[in-house]
Design a protein that fits this description.
The chain is α+β, with helices and mostly antiparallel strands and 364 residues long. The chain contains ten helices and eleven strands. The chain is globular and about 60 Å long.
């Protein structure tokens, strides 16, 4: 894992990390986040990494309770755990450790012991993962892959439910259409969406036009993906409409509180990395989760006692470009080394990255 900064061209550069905790920070900031808001702050100490929420980046209309923000932080936490495992470190994770500091989401400490081998195998996928909003080709995810995804979510205290029955698929489609109409009828929702889709070049956040379909009004979505093309400048082909032939999975938790949201974010990223490793792409389909009336109906129909937290559509599609990242210095803070310990020289020539073209690193 390598450290990323921003070049004069606005592109990420790579610098070898000075420690496993540096590598963990580098991986954390590559996590997917709602509307690519990247609502995190990271503080590095010699013996630990602290992950905190940046609530100035919360979507107040879409996400008033902070569910999606907390899930985004969970995805960053999972990436940090993956990086530490890949570096050969066992890790202790304290989630929501301080009731007096609700912004502090997690503290990670390398400890003696064996690293998590299953997490370590996911490290190459961290940089390759992308949220993909293209139209997916035919073919459902095989049962053996679905079993891997169910186990990956369960390892993070989350239930993954494949939506397979035709009546359940059509119910999810109907509720997604209903929620999409409700959201788009709200001027405040559309204004918030515009703020995160028409960012100035070089801002390092938000959903770029290269990552969204151009909407021309000719295509009908049975399962509508979110319309991020607020300025009519989407660069993906217009024929990226969703349909009910792809694979859909729902993630749910047994409680509905910040800890459950955080664990679901960890599960979500673990599932996405497992998919990336196997050559599949995925994208969120969360409108029915975000609108209370449709979320209630979804719970009663599909998850019963569990609380639905996220929906993914999964398939095969051409790769998309990576989404931008905020400058490292605005997100990661290094605490001073203890007195008497010399600072380590980390001056390394920056190298311009070459896209691997296989479809991998960043959501929404």
């Amino acid at each position: 894992m390598t450290r990323r900064t921003t070049s004069s061209e606005g592109l990420p550069t790579r610098i070898p990390p000075a420690s496993p905790l540096e590598a963990a920070a580098d991986a954390a900031v590559l996590a997917p986040s709602v509307h690519n808001t990247q609502p995190w702050r990271i503080r590095l100490h010699p013996d630990r990494l602290e992950l905190s929420a940046d609530r100035t980046r919360r979507l107040t209309v879409l996400d008033p309770a902070g569910r999606a923000l907390t899930q985004s932080l969970g995805a960053a936490l999972l990436n940090a755990r993956v990086a530490l495992a890949a570096a050969g470190s066992a890790v202790r994770v304290d989630r929501l450790p301080d009731p007096a500091d609700p912004e502090l989401v997690a503290v990670l400490r390398p400890v003696d012991g064996l690293p998590d081998a299953a997490l370590a195998t996911l490290a190459p996928a961290v940089r390759r993962r992308r949220t993909n909003r293209r139209r997916y080709g035919p073919g459902r995810v095989p049962d053996e892959v679905l079993r891997v995804l169910v186990a990956a979510a369960a390892a993070e205290d989350t239930v993954l439910v494949p939506v397979i029955r035709d009546d359940h698929v059509h119910l999810l489609a109907r509720l997604t259409q209903q929620a999409d109409r409700i959201q788009n009828a709200d001027p405040a929702y559309r204004a918030e969406l515009r703020r995160w889709t028409n960012r100035e070049p070089g801002t390092g956040d938000g959903v770029p036009t290269s990552a969204v379909p151009h909407v021309d009004g000719r295509h009908h979505d049975q399962l509508p993906v979110r319309d991020f093309d607020t300025a009519g400048a989407g660069q993906l082909p217009a024929d990226t409409t969703s349909d009910t032939t792809q694979t859909l999975v729902l993630l749910a938790t047994h409680t509905d509180d910040p800890l459950a949201w955080l664990r679901c974010g960890e599960a979500l990223e673990r599932v996405l990395l497992e998919l990336t490793t196997r050559g599949w792409v995925a994208g969120p389909l969360t409108q029915a989760i975000e609108v209370p009336v449709t979320r209630t109906q979804l719970r009663s129909a599909l998850t019963w006692d569990a609380h639905p937290q996220s929906v993914l559509r999964i398939g095969h599609a051409p790769a998309t470009s990576p989404t931008p990242r905020r400058p490292r210095g605005t997100v990661v803070e290094n605490s001073p080394a203890p007195a008497g310990r010399p600072a380590r020289d980390r001056t390394v020539a920056a190298a311009r990255p070459v896209p691997d073209g296989r479809g991998g690193t960043t959501w929404v």
